[in-house]
Amino acid sequence: MSATKTSILTLLSAVAVASCSSGTNTTTTMGSAGSGTMGGGGADTTTMSVGGSNTAATETDAREVANCAESRTQLRPDEPSGLGFSVADAQGQLGAEWNAIANWEQPIGAVSQPASGEVRLVLSLDRVAEDPVLVEGSGESDACSRHVEFNLTALVTTLDGALSELVALKVRAYSASDMQLEATLSVAELVGSYTISHREEDMEVAELVFLATVGGTSWTGQILGIFTARSASDASAPSTSQPILRW
């Protein structure tokens, strides 16, 4: 098992333990993702999915839960990171475009369009890496492992027109070919035709979170809908997530 996938397993385990101790009911499941590659098909890989009324978990959440003590060192794109690769090496592996056949899903308790069906998802990447750093963390969790981190401007598109979103994509590279991608999309600012709302008036879906794992020439991932309470009096209620698109 790669260091990145171990990190994700530990990440979600840490969230589950923390939720149990605070009385939150959290369930973590492991699902088989469809195939996706740079430019087309490829071998299936496994991704972690958080569904139902689960607490939303991302790589960022995991590092906070693990209480990682971090130091950040700025890097030039072509500068060796000390991990055996540079930012430029990671960008070379990412290339300019990734695509996959994805499946729309209807979250429980929500109304969305599209609610189901198969669609081609395309991720187009800018070539300029912003704020590249070497992150060195100390802590008991694998979520604190050393990695290179940088930001890219990316376009997330589905060929049915539901998504056509320019996002700030955070890249965490554990090797030149093993990376985690993460971005947040505001539902209110979506350019595509995708719509989602919660059936209960006191709940809303304000954000979508794009999460993907890149391993070699294959990638898997999902876009999660983040459900939160509308009322300020319910602000302490934990956010929950459900997948709206998987690949």
What's the number of domains? 1
- Percentage of residues in helical conformation: 10-25%
Q: Provide the structure class.
A: mainly beta
Helix and strand sequence: HEEEEHEHEEEEEEEEEEE
Tertiary shape: globular
Could you describe the largest sheet, including whether it forms a barrel?
Answer: 8 strands, antiparallel, barrel
Short synopsis of the structure:
The chain is mostly beta strands and 247 residues long. The protein has helices at residues 3-21, 59-65, 87-94; strands at residues 29-32, 36-37, 46-49, 54-55, 69-74, 97-104, 110-113, 117-125, 130-138, 147-158, 164-175, 178-186, 195-198, 203-215, 218-229, 240-246. A hairpin with a 2-residue loop joins strand 14 (203-215) and strand 15 (218-229).
Task: Describe the overall structure.
- By secondary structure, the protein is mainly beta.
- It has one domain.
- Helix content is 14%, strand content 47%.
- The chain has an eight-stranded antiparallel barrel with strand order 6-8-10-11-12-14-15-16. A two-stranded antiparallel ribbon has the order 1-3.
- It is globular.
- The model is unreliable at 1-35 and 39-57 (pLDDT under 50).
